[in-house]
Amino acid sequence: MNKSIVAVSVIVVLGAAWTGVSWYTGKLIEQHLDEQVAAANSQLQSAYPKAGLKVSYQDYHRGLFSSNLRLVLQPDAAAAAAGTSVLKTGDEIAFIETIDHGPFPAAQLKRFNLIPSMASVHSELQNTPTLKGLFDVTKGKSLITADTRLSYSGASASAIDIIPVTYQKDESQLQFSGGTINVDVDKDMTAMKLKASTDSVALTSKNQWGQLEKVTLAGFSMDSDTQQGKFQVGVGDQNLIVKQILVNIDGKDAGSLDNFKLVSKFSESGNNINGQQDYTIDALKIQGADFGSAKLTLKLDKLDGAALKEFADKYNNQSRELLMRQSELDPAVYQQQAADLLLAGLPTLLKGNPSISIAPLSWKNSKGESTFNLQLDLKDPAAAPAQTQDQMLSQLVNKVDATLNIPLPMATQVTTQVAQLEGYSADDAAKLAQQQVQGLAAMGQMFKLTTVKDDTITSSFHYADNQIDLNGQKMTLQEFAGLFGILGGPAAPAPTPEQEAPAAPAPVPAQ
Which Pfam families is this protein grouped with (predicted)? Predict the structure, then answer.
């Protein structure tokens, strides 16, 4: 048989096979559409039960190699009738979905991705009346486009692009350079890898003093690798970087934060969840003055997983309900109720006798480094309810260890810089700073809260079993409370005549 005929035959067979598989894939996708939409609605209801929204698909057309449909987010009929939906009757947010069938979707081949896939989906926002204002800002373009590869296992990988936007209203302006988001999600939607980045976001508006204030966030990036643990609480690693946050007022640079970084790691251990978050700032600058760098390491241990899940679910549900009523409440009332929700749920988090440590909180400049370290071991209040007011602390706290170190030269430099910002000359600022820091050190010693050693203000505090050790001075919790009149503690005893300062001598009468 002629080799050319063989080659053509192979191509025909492969083409027919590809066509058949592509047709079957399209049919398979169509059969599972209702299932996927139902899953999306279930997740929407779980995450936002009071939103009154539902997802549906419309205008589905299946072809041999590709299909098209509209994916629509609109108000649930019952919620819209009751006026509880975040969208009004007739509103809709729609995506135009173009689905290239597998096993080798055309959209993936264009990206030189040869991994067999069930489908590749290209998504764009549709210009509906609900989104007319957004499309006016973007000059008729979809703000977001996404290309998603769906594997035969059910996992997905999405590449999302957000276009640059400049929006001006009166004297307020938003400038966004655009960004990218890459998301990989497993078939059960319980594990996710995410990478996001943007060059800059800038917001300009009038502040409370009528000045034109511009806040710019530059060089933002984030990546995370998280999954739901056995308590349905997200654990894993997250990293966030902002190269600079710049504040400009009336055309002049007022301050900046350089290289803000957050590294977060949470994991499960038995029935507990443990985690650590590290924050760093390379430089804080105000009106050109370098105030130094900062770092914070925060550790959380023995957080009971089931209790954390209970707290998160209850708090999220209640805070969503409160958010729905925000427009009806005075801002101060709203803030108070939000704080009350958080405080009411905190005892639930103490079930596993968790501990919190700060090691360290540090602030460093060219003259030295101040540090604060804390180890706080908490207790489940349900295990031993407090009977009296002065038992409240011992009911919640098992042990506290804290230390503070502030080098006097470091504190003096910071105070000098603050005084110069207030308008003092360099010499006057230095003198004022010296007086203020020395006065602070003397006051701390007078109240026995701090000591001064090796040109450094220091303080140490230890609490356990109702006993306190403050800089080597031992006392009961009640005696410590009495020093400051807190927790119902007895007032500190009045100084004896020997302790009182001697009276000034009477003037000698003139001869």
Answer: DUF945 (PF06097)
